[in-house]
Specification:
This protein is of the alpha+beta class. The chain has 2 domains: about 1-135, Glutaredoxin, CATH 3.40.30; about 140-275, Glutathione S-transferase Yfyf (Class Pi), Chain A, domain 2. It is about 45% helix and about 10% strand. A hairpin with a 2-residue loop joins strand 3 and strand 4 (about 80-85).
């Protein structure tokens, strides 16, 4: 597959924006084969949730995948001889924000659709087909919204609080808050199988799952304090993780080796930059 890039240059300043407006509402309901291209990293949890929604919604033919390399450099995500930033220059010329994954473009008009994982997950997860799995059904929308906000704040973003630069006190604070949330979730999952519906994994479950998928591989060894509990000490969360990993299409989205390679490199680069 060839990709046409505009010449590498600084992001334009005139009419520049640090946000990329999601443009999928106008195209909603039209998922023709080969219409979209999705740039992802299998190491990235925000990409992972979108990969899951694509798989469960059976949109592989409509949404083509392009993988960035798991290890970043000083510019950012690498893409063969280019960087993901070159894609942003080509497909979102007024954008000056972070060149992040996921990024989806509409191939025919060469325009960016969205780089917001929550929007892309919702776009895919509300797509109705004979074979796909709805992740945001109307009858559970209110429950999903509540759980999404809770999981995003107290789990997904909590593990990144203070980043690699965290002091011991900051790590202890972050770990304590995360463990409190995990213990509460473990208690809840002793009584019900999933979060929002109880019998079907929906958006909040997969948002939680992508963090659990990185917990023992990256977060506990690299970003949390020694007081972080092993997942096996949280038996209902561990059951929840194993249960969702058996869902058809999910093992193909999960690449532990790339997760370890990415976070190990990030930690090494941080130590080099700060030694």
């Amino acid at each position: 597959m060839s990709i046409d890039f505009s010449p590498t240059q600084a992001f334009p300043r005139e009419d520049a924006t640090r946000t990329l407006t999601t443009r999928w509402e106008a195209a909603k309901g039209v998922m023709s084969p080969g219409r979209y291209r999705l740039y992802v990293s299998y190491a990235c949890p925000w990409s992972h949730r979108v990969l899951i929604a694509r798989a469960l919604s059976k949109l592989e033919n409509a949404v083509e995948l392009v993988e960035v390399e798991p290890k970043m450099d000083h510019i950012g995500w690498r893409l063969g001889g280019h960087h993901l930033a070159d894609c942003y220059r080509a497909y979102a010329p007024g954008y000056i924000g972070k060149a992040s994954v996921p990024l989806m473009i509409e191939i025919e008009n060469g325009q960016a659709v969205s780089n917001t994982s929550a929007d892309l997950m919702r776009m895919f997860g509300t797509w109705s087909s004979d074979f796909g799995h709805l992740l945001y059904p109307a009858e559970y929308a209110a429950a999903c919204d509540v759980w999404n906000a809770d999981v995003e704040t107290n789990v997904n973003k909590r593990v990144y609080q203070f980043g690699f630069a965290a002091s011991k006190e900051e790590k202890d604070m972050k770990t304590s808050a995360l463990m409190k949330t995990f213990l509460n979730l473990d208690d809840l999952l002793a009584k019900r199988r999933y979060l929002a519906s109880g019998d079907t994994p929906l958006e909040p479950d997969w948002r939680l799952w992508t963090t659990l998928a990185r917990y023992e591989l990256a977060y506990r060894p690299f970003m949390l304090s020694a007081s972080a509990l092993p997942l096996l000490d949280l038996p209902n969360l561990a059951r929840f993780f194993d249960d969702l990993l058996t869902v058809q299409g999910i093992p193909e989205t999960y690449r532990p080796d790339e997760i370890v390679a990415h976070y190990s490199a990030r930690l090494r680069d941080f130590k080099i930059d700060h030694c």
